[in-house]
């Protein structure tokens, strides 16, 4: 009898493990039936926004691993997802919905955002769970972009974020991606910290924050770009200035793009660094447009047409191009580029409004995911892009 019970329990466990592997694969297959049939921009914008609203307080967990078999083991080991990855997923959704609320005044979405804030910050405006990685700065920046709340209430959390960034300062005066890798500078960090630093620095009159953001960007331009093409490597080593990882990693272009353009957007017209960053925006826009594919996408490796299209790269660079179109001499080209990006993203959207085919989380320098699926980060930037061009619900 005991042996029978053990066998049944073992059988049940095997079935559960198999289902954990099979169900997501089946759901993806089912969700991709009739993918890419959106033709109307307003309908598409409403659909992607509705998904973003659903995901804000129930954000899908993004896998750290590429494993699709025995996923339950990764879950038990704690290798399935990490908070640092979730921070930039949530930040993107929040930024996208902030743009939507700014235009629509949707009270229901405001309540969802307030619910989200209550889950992340305590009554004193401090983080409920203090972050340990600088990835959290993009979420802090997203909070500062909410114009219907008193963001000063979250000043303690913002100060904590600034202290966290300072704690990652290296010997060269720029910010490390991780404290245990002090000699590397990642392109991701541009997107994580620079918009926050400028926004926080201007709001609370700490010019050192703004100076650090500008230095982070200009240092990367000097040491982390491919000469003659102006696309970033994944990282560089601060001692010998050697590039690390891939030149032309798509989401790396996206991280540089959003960090640069949002930092530039935050600076007032008369600021000493405004023109400097505008020149950087212009140069990078021209460089990135050269690698856009005929159907409007950017590949996960932008230098190779044979590589898979990456929706996360396309969404972030689409947002960048829309913002860069404010520069008169490149305006027409940037608007056309953004329009082509939108057309591609519509084709990559499931019938329920979830944008598909974004590259999964990167494992290490030069070690890139070969899974392409939904990504809240992509969803948020699609929402942000559509509301910035005044097409939507």
Percent of residues in helices: 55-70%
- Average per-residue pLDDT, rounded, comes to 91
What is the string of helix and strand elements?
Answer: HHHHHHHEHHEEHHHHEEH
Low-confidence stretches: 68-72
The total domain count is 1
Total helices: the number is 14
Question: How big is the Rg?
Answer: 21 Å
Strand order of the largest sheet: 1-2-3
**Reported CATH architecture:** Alpha/alpha barrel
Strand segment count: 5
Strand portion: under 5%
Largest sheet: 3 strands, antiparallel
Pfam families: Glyco_hydro_88
Protein name: Glycosyl Hydrolase Family 88
Keywords: Hydrolase
GO molecular function: hydrolase activity
Explain this structure to me?
With 393 residues, the chain is mainly alpha-helical. It has a single domain, classed as Glycosyltransferase (Alpha/alpha barrel). It contains 14 helices and five strands. The chain has a three-stranded antiparallel β-sheet with strand order 1-2-3. The longest helix has 30 residues. The chain is globular, with a radius of gyration of 21 Å. The protein starts with a helix and ends in a 5-residue tail after the last helix. About 1% of the residues have low confidence. GO terms for molecular function: hydrolase activity. This is Glycosyl Hydrolase Family 88. Keywords: Hydrolase.
